Amino acid sequence: MRSIITGLLAVGLLSIGLAGQSYPPPFPRTNATKLLENERVVVWDVTWPKGQPTALHRHLYDLAGVYLQSGDRVITEVDGRKRSVSTAAGGVTAQLRGLTHIEEGTSDVPLRAIMIEMKQDAPVGSDDAGDLPPAFPREGAKQLLDNERVRIWDYAWPKGHVGPMHRHVRDNVVVWMESGKLRSTPRTGAPTITTVTKFTATYSQRGNVHSEEAIEGAPRAYVFELK
Fold first, then answer.
1. Which domains are seen in the chain, by residue range?
2. The whole model's pTM is what?
3. What letter would DSSP give residue 214?
4. pLDDT tens string 62-71
């Protein structure tokens, strides 16, 4: 009986110690490149090379992302449990802050993703679309995920097709999945031409009003509408 009680006390003390321990954040780190940062987000281009485990880290922010390259990982939990994970390119992810683990790539071609850390603790809401339709949903856009922090859309701009004038009611991070050129025409003023590059990210604030047309290539993006 004494040995059982001693064992239970040891487990309890270990749990308390782990709960109270501080860990480094996941980023910055080797194999993670910062793409942009502002008051709302930090966006990272991350790879998990084979045989290069991360430090045991704790995620400080809610996070969402998209995987650019398929690959495999082993994830080690705080208590030492390990699990193997295979992830396909094009998949999306979302997780809440507080997750603590080690990650190590196991595939010859490393897993790669763009990850978005949401710096604010809670949603900030959205604007009223007013007399225009919101940017999303729209024809041709596929909703991939919707939770309390973010809504993710997969959208390709058909070449030569001018979409309707619309208003962006939320701040958004755009991860470009295919390259091309877009013409953006505001309600008043001259149009602008933007070249977008595959596997990069851009940020757009709410309130933007325009129509869009692909004029070169086949631009496609995952649009992360921040709540």
1. 21-118 (2.60.120.10), 142-226 (2.60.120.10)
2. 0.89
3. E
4. 999 999 999 9
